[in-house]
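In response to reviewer comment 3 from the previous cycle, which asked for concrete evidence that the modeling workflow produces usable outputs, we include below a single protein chain processed end to end. The sequence was submitted unchanged, and the resulting C-alpha cells are shown without manual editing.
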Amino acid sequence: MKFTYQARDKQGQLKRGSVEANDTRAAAQAIMAQGLTPVQVNAGGAGAKTKTPRPGSAKETNNNWVSILREQLEPNVDLDQLIIFCRQMYSLTNAGIPILRAIDGLADSTQNKRMQKALKDVYSQLERGRTLSAGLAQHKKIFPKLVVAIVHVGENTGQLEESFEQLALYLENEQDTRKRIKAATRYPSFVLIALAIAMFVLNIFVIPTFADMFSRFNVELPWATRALLGTSDFFVNYWPLMLIAIVGGFFGLRYYVSQPSGRLIWDSLKLKVPVIGSILERSMLARFSRSFSVMLGAGVPLTQALSLVAEAVDNAWMEKKILDIRRSIERGDNLSRAARYSKLFTPLVMQMIVVGEETGRIDTLLREVAEYYERETDYDLKTLTARIEPAMIAVVAVMVLILALGIFTPMWDMMSAYQGG
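The workflow returned the following C-alpha cells.
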C-alpha cells in the first residue's frame, strides 16, 4: 500500500513524498529510517496528492494554532498516572520485557492523551537509538528531573527495575502527604470562605433593611449599630471597587509570586504562618529527606542529588537553603557540617545525619529522617482541626456578637421607649 507523508528533516524543513508499506506504523518507521520526523501520514493511491502548505503560510499558521489549542485542552498528567507508569514499568522490566516493547504497550494502553503522545515520542526516540532517560527528558512537564535522573542511573548500573520501584514508592509517599495536607486544610478553608460570603450578604442585603428602619427614628444609635451601618454603607456604595481590588490583588499577587524574588519571600512567609507553617516546613523536610535518600540509594552523585532535590521540595526558600548546602560541599565541607550551617534540621536529625555519614549508610539514615518527619507531620495534621477550631469559633462568635448588639440593641431601646410612651 502506498502512503503519502509530510515530514521534517533535521533542519526543520517540511518535506513530502510517498512510501510503500503494509500499515501506517510501518510507513512511519520507513520515513524515520530516512532521517525524517513524520508530521502526517496518509494512505493514498498513485494519483493521490497532498497539498503541502508553504512554511509561514496562513494554513500552516492555523494548523499550528489548532495543535497548540488541542494540546492545552488535553488533560494534564497527574501524580496518580505517573505512579501507575512507574509501577507498570517496574513490573514489565522485572518480567524481562524489552524497554521498546514495554513503552509501546504502555502508549497503547494509557487513557491520558498527553501521556500517550509523550510515550509514543519516547518510543520513536528509542527506535532511533536514544536512551530511555534521554527520551523522558524531552517531556519535562510530564516527567520531573528527579525521575529522569534516577532512570538514567538505573540504565547505567543495569538496575532499571529497582529504579522504577524506588520511584513508585517515593511518588506514593508524596501523594499520600499531599492528600493529608489537603484534607486537613479543607475545613478551615471552607469556614473562611463561608464567613466571607456571609459578610458580603449581610452588608449588602440584610443590614440596609434595618438601616432604613432605624433612620425613621431620630435617636442616637449604639456604637455597634453605627459600625455595622458604616460598614454596610461602604459595601453598598463601593462594592464594584472592592470587587476590582480583590480581582486585581489576586492577579497581582500571582504575578508577584511568579517572579523569583517574590516567590522567595512568599515561600518564606508561608513557613511562618502560625500552626500551619511548622506543618508545611516538616512536610517539606520529609520530602527532602526521602527524595535525597532515593537519589543516593540509586547512585546519583551527592552534589547532583542536592541540585535535583532542591527542585523537588517545591519551595524557593528551602531550595535556596539546599543549594547553599551543595555549595558548601563543593567548597570542601562534609554533608553534616553543611547541614548544620543551614539550620534546617533539629539536633536529633543532625545526629542521624552525622552517624549515617560516618557509617556510610547516609541513604538509610535519611530514610529514617523522612519517616521521623512524616510521623510528626501526620500527628500535626490529625490534630490541626482541633487546634484551629477554637480560633474559628471565636471569630464566628465575635461576628455574631457584633451583629446581635448592632441590630437588636436599638430595637430593644425603641421597644422600651414605645412601651414607656
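The two ends are 104 Å apart (CA to CA). We consider this sufficient to address the reviewer's concern, and the full set will be provided in the supplementary archive.
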